[in-house]
């Protein structure tokens, strides 16, 4: 016998105790500032005093050298070096801008004056009021994309996803997401439109899109129809599964009645005790009534009474699922097996598909219940 030196190979013992520990994730790339020891990212703390200072600089416009004209005759004052650092597009615009006295002049049109203010403030301090974000989410998304301010764009997308996207603005946001290269937002708005088509199609946004982009409307309508068909198909499958499950349960109950007997019905050699506990097979009650009817019905021929016809079908179905007819106690099991051999191919395929679907309902390869139909 080979002895184990417990101290000789610690690593092999650890390996037996569980999977090896994953190596640590690679850290952030070293920037030249990080190499110089300047604190970066999560290690870096910014006091609110500093942010307040940047806000004040914007609010007071101290030594501002840029005038941004807005649509409604308003002006926002800014500092060229700050807005240039925060937005490469702004930098490019400033290079080409005209100078009037000490000011370089820009204009930002197509969005409300207050939205431009909120935007420029963000360039200074990355700060915004929730109320402003809710009011100007659409223009802020446009501005952040047009002026290449990714952090603001990301915030706009997050805010929309977390509640600002609604029935009224979803059509506008969807179109913007396509124009502003925001695939996730596009996907979320698309899903909202398709799921709430009735409400969304009644909005002004939808009417405006219908006029300006009829092709987009057509595409959305096609998606709505597709989704509708998918829902119908899901419901159909669900109902179908329910029927197969009921059939499976009926098959279980049939074997149980013929093998063990249930309450007062069962094999002729079974002695029924009084005060039996209630049966655990849900389908038993209905099946018991059907069997009693079948035993007494005068029209007991295939194609006759609908109840008897159902009983014939259940008996045939059982026979197709039954593993061993020689020992099975279900009536006519063997007769059906013999008849099946003579059946034409088309009928045979139909029954085989039905049997397979019933067994699949219970997500089992072979139904163990039917292999024990003999009771031995
Ligand atoms: Zn029962
Ligand atoms: Zn009948
Ligand atoms: Zn059988």
From TrEMBL:
Swiss-Prot/TrEMBL keywords: Metal-binding, Ubl conjugation pathway, Zinc, Zinc-finger
Q: Which organism is it from?
A: Rhodamnia argentea
Query: Per its UniProt record, what SMART domains does this chain match?
Result: BTB (SM00225), ZnF_TAZ (SM00551)
- What name does the UniProt record give this protein? BTB/POZ and TAZ domain-containing protein 4
In what ranges is there compositional bias, type Pro residues?
Answer: 20-29
Q: Where is this region: Disordered?
A: 1-31
Pathway it works in: Protein modification; protein ubiquitination
The record's section on CDD domains has: BACK
Q: State whether keyword Mitochondrion applies.
A: no
| Record-level GO BP terms | protein ubiquitination; regulation of DNA-templated transcription; response to hormone; response to hydrogen peroxide; response to salicylic acid
Write down the PROSITE patterns for this protein, in alphabetical order. Answer: BTB (PS50097), ZF_TAZ (PS50134)
Task: Outline the extent of the TAZ-type domain.
Answer: 238-336
Q: Identify the Pfam families for this entry.
A: BTB, zf-TAZ
Q: What is the lineage of its organism?
A: Eukaryota, Viridiplantae, Streptophyta, Embryophyta, Tracheophyta
The answer on whether this UniProt entry bears the keyword Metal-binding reads yes
- Alphabetized SUPFAM superfamilies for the sequence: POZ domain, TAZ domain
GO MF term (any one): zinc ion binding
What domain of life does the UniProt record list for this protein's source? Eukaryota
> Which residue numbers delimit the BTB domain?
64-132
